[in-house]
Amino acid sequence: MFDLIVKGGTLPDGTRADIGITGDRIAAVDNLDTAAAGRVIDATGDLVSPPFVDPHFHMDATLSYGTPRINASGTLLEGIALWGELKEIVTIDDMVARGLEYCDWAASMGLLAIRSHVDTCDDRLLGVQAMLELREKVRDYIDLQLVAFPQDGVFRDPTAMDNTIRALDMGVDVVGGIPHFERTMADGARSVTALCEIAAQRGLMVDMHCDETDDPMSRHIETLAYETRRLGLQGRVVGSHLTSMHSMDNYYVSKLLPLIAEAQVAAIPNPLINIMLQGRHDSFPKRRGLTRVREMQAAGIDVGWGQDCVLDPWYSLGTADMLDVAFMGLHVAQMSAPDEMRRCFDMVTETNARIIGVRDYGLRVGATASLVVLDAGNPIEALRLRATRLCVVARGKVIAETPRAVAQLSLPGSPGRPGRLRRRHPAHNG
Ligand SMILES: [Zn+2]
């Protein structure tokens, strides 16, 4: 007797299996035709996936679009300035309320683990207090991991280092940084060293906003990989964005990629934001502003897709849909081969979970009973349709259900044809 069975679904690897859930754990992944359960969800013909994971987000800024004004130039730098204005007027309650609303969106989209950078350049640390409160409020359905992020530069801002350390003392999980925003290249490199040393002393992970610029000489990823090896942080460090690598000299990159791979530093590009913010100083041809995703993967580097922003000073759209993120990444990185498209789905599930260290993740016996049923036959179709999340299960409980989107056609000259339409297609099955 299970509490819940998700029946007849297709897993991302193409196998068909029923999933039996007891309490908050997956108890069986098998043929459960004869088993009884408190509730059975029929997933016949649908894709059953582990939950989506967003490894890069800014929860303290989300859903603030237009407050106090919009980003007119569309650049990263105006976004940072605008966030500075917003920080002056924002309250803890406001940030918690916006974060809670966003987490509702995320729950409805099967996005159940989020790594969020929280700004530590505020002597009152309002954002940190708000996000710690939010982390508690959503802990039964969303794993919210927090990164201490000195948005204005840990050296550029006079109190940022102290505040970042205070944030870690208060329970923020990961050490962040923004070396390309420090005043000089030397300060940027120094900030990487100092912040990695703090992480090593405290046994924490590192996730830096790194080289989010079109400047090919922004090479802080080199220092980040070097310090990772020097301090024995392999497997615990992420370089987020890495957009400057798009513009770097090819010879230099051929030397850089093995260093990143040997340091086991993972990469998190954020395709919606990168394609929107980068290249703004170019005329034509205009650079794509996305890092070298396929090339890094070919070199053995873990690469996930991050969302970064939804309705905030940097980005005016967004729906908490990691399939949107992967869809954009697939296009900009030209990952059109079938195995590359499937990999794009894996990047927003398994790969992201591995990179940020989501515990007990996956569709296997003993794992946390969190999953999502999608109105799609396979991962590629899920991407093509940005498929409806028919059912979302978090820790053994059904937390969201959305009706299947079915159009009813009444075409002139074609009576009775085809009637109900779902836009599913067998193209990528098997
Ligand atoms: Zn970011």
From TrEMBL:
What are the UniProt keywords, alphabetically? Hydrolase, Metal-binding
Q: Tell me the segments the record calls region Disordered.
A: 409-430
Q: Which terms under GO biological process does the entry name?
A: cytosine catabolic process
Molecular function terms in GO for this entry? cytosine deaminase activity; isoguanine deaminase activity; metal ion binding
Q: Which domain of life is it from?
A: Bacteria
| Ranges annotated as biased composition (Low complexity) | 409-418
The keyword Hydrolase is annotated on this UniProt entry = yes
One short Pfam name that applies is Amidohydro_3
Taking every annotated instance into account, which residue ranges of this chain make up the domain Amidohydrolase?
A: 39-399
Protein name, as recorded: Amidohydrolase family protein
List, as start-end ranges, the regions of compositional bias called Basic residues: 419-430
* Cited InterPro entries: Amidohydro_3 (IPR013108), Metal-dep_hydrolase_composite (IPR011059), Metal_Hydrolase (IPR032466), Metallo-hydrolase_Enzymes (IPR052349)
